[in-house]
């Protein structure tokens, strides 16, 4: 749970699951109210936890994309099951 703690990490992971490879500004648009610093920090933490992959393309202007790693994909399977459980066990 410590790997995905925080306000934005789960949303970032779900965006990457939904849209495959995503650039920084696209993620920022999906997350609406998030600062560049916060997004950058969250992406670095997810990358160091090996949940996402940062792909840098050698071109001008620089292009960087983020996608789920195999480890991240396996985590998403678990989180999906957790969401299903939550929906079934909602208190009215």
| Helix count, DSSP H or I runs of 4 or more residues | 4
Strand content: 15-25%
**Anisotropy-based shape:** globular
Name the strands of the widest sheet in spatial order: 1-3-2
Structural class: alpha+beta
In whole angstroms, the N-to-C terminal distance is: 26 Å
- CA gyration radius, whole angstroms: 14 Å
Mean pLDDT: 86
Helix content: 55-70%
Seen as an oligomer or otherwise, the chain set is single chain
Would you report the number of β strands? 3
- The low-pLDDT segments are none
* Series of secondary-structure elements, N-terminal to C-terminal: HEHHEEH
The major pleated sheet works out as: 3 strands, antiparallel
Write the layout of secondary structure elements.
Blueprint: H1 9-19, E1 22-23, H2 24-31, H3 36-48, E2 52-57, E3 63-68, H4 70-88
Walkthrough of the structure:
14% of the residues are buried. The chain has a three-stranded antiparallel β-sheet with strand order 1-3-2. The model has no long low-confidence stretch (mean pLDDT 86). It is an alpha+beta fold and 92 residues long. The chain contains four helices and three strands.
List keywords for this structure.
alpha+beta; 4 helices; 55% helix; 15% strand; globular
Summary?
With 92 residues, the protein is of the alpha+beta class. A three-stranded antiparallel sheet has the order 1-3-2. A hairpin with a 5-residue loop joins strand 2 and strand 3.
